[in-house]
Amino acid sequence: MEIKPYLEEQRRLVEEYLGRFMLPAEGDFSRLVEAMRYSLFVGGKRVRPILCLAASRAVIGDASLDGQVMPVACAMECIHTYSLIHDDLPAMDNDDLRRGRPTNHKVFGEAEAILAGDGLLTFAFELLSDPAFAATPAEARLRICHTIARAAGPLGMVGGQSLDMANEGKDIPYDLLRTIHRSKTGALITAAVETGGIAAGADATQLRALAGYGNAIGLAFQIVDDLLNVESTTEQLGKAAGSDAEAGKATYPALLGLEKSRTMAADAVAEAHRALESFGESAEPLRALATYIVERKR
Fold it and tell me: Residue 189's domain is classified under what CATH number?
C-alpha cells in the first residue's frame, strides 16, 4: 500500500477529532487551555493514534468502529504531547524547538508549560471515561485505562525518562539501554496498538500478536530516532540535531555504532511483520507503518 497518502488521510482524521474533543481556549482557564492547544496542534505525525486505529481495523476488518476508538486514539496523542512538553523543560532536555516551533515553555513560561502537560495527561483520562465512549463495554474501557496508565506511568514512560536522566554521561550496559527505551518510548507505542485491539474486541491470541508487533516497532522507532538525531539536521527534525550526544544521552548509536543500530532497527521491523502473520489483509496498514517507521527521515 502507499503509506504516505494513508498517513496524511489518517492524520487529518485524527486532527479533526482532536479539534472536536479538545477544550476551547476561553473563559477563566483560557491561558492554560491555549498552552495545551499550542503543543497539541503544532503539528506532528500522529503515529500513536494512527497505530491505535490501524490495530482496531486489523481486528474487525474495516473502519466501522473508528468513532468508538477515536477517544482512545486521541487520548494517546494527548499523553504523548504532554510527554514532549515535559521532556523539553529546562530541568529535563532543555530544548528550544519542537516540531520546528518554539517549545511550550519558551512561549508560555516554565510553570504554565508544566501545567499544560499536566492538563493534557489528565484530560486524556477524561476522554477515556467520557459517557460518549459508552458504546465500548465497561470492562474493555477499564482495561484500556489500565493499559495506558501503566504504559505512561512509573513502570513505563515516566520511569524510562527517570532512568534516561539518571544515566546521562554514563557508560551503561545494553540491557539497561534497552530497558530505558522500552519504557520511555516503546511502552506507549505498544499501548496504542494494544488498546486499539481491545476497543475492537480482540481475543487473547490477537492481543498477544498486537503486543508483539507493538514491542518490535517501539524498539525500531527509538533506534531510528537515535539515528536521526545523529544524521539529520535541525531543519529536518524540527528540533535540535545532535542534542543526544551533547547531553551525554544513552543511545543505540552511542553504544552500538551506526551500522549495528541500523541492522537492529531492520531486524525489529522484520519481527513486527512476523508478529502479524495470523492477520490477513486488514493488517496491511500496520505492516506498512512498521516499514515506514524504519525508513522515515524525521
Answer: 1.10.600.10
